[in-house]
Specification:
Mean pLDDT: 96
Radius of gyration: 12 Å
Distance between the termini: 20 Å
Order of helices and strands: HHHHH
Helix content: 40-55%
Strand content: under 5%
Number of strands: 0
Shape: globular
């Protein structure tokens, strides 16, 4: 959860609702992870790819190795594990 809090929450929000402090200024709003079905319907590999490489035509930049954020692949997997435990709706 520490990496999410440091690198993700300002856009995606503490609760994964896409309402982080930086979201107001964005034309394409950050994804809300806490919407029912979102986490269940995304493959881990897809979440990894988006985090590592970014998402074209959105504000989601690449966060992987060599980027400005420079998260290791292990750190990205830890973020995905946290997202599943924090934002999956039962």
């Amino acid at each position: 959860g520490k990496i999410y809090k440091r690198k993700c929450k300002k856009c995606h929000g503490t609760e994964g609702d896409g309402q982080g402090s930086a979201a107001d200024d964005m034309i394409i709003k950050p994804t809300a992870f806490n919407v029912a079905g979102y986490m269940e319907n995304k493959k881990d590999g897809q979440l990894f790819w988006i985090t590592r490489d970014g998402s074209p035509d959105t504000e989601m930049k690449n966060f992987g190795p060599g980027s400005d954020v420079n998260l290791s692949e292990d750190e990205i997997w830890r973020v995905i594990t946290f997202m599943h435990s924090a934002f999956t709706q039962e």
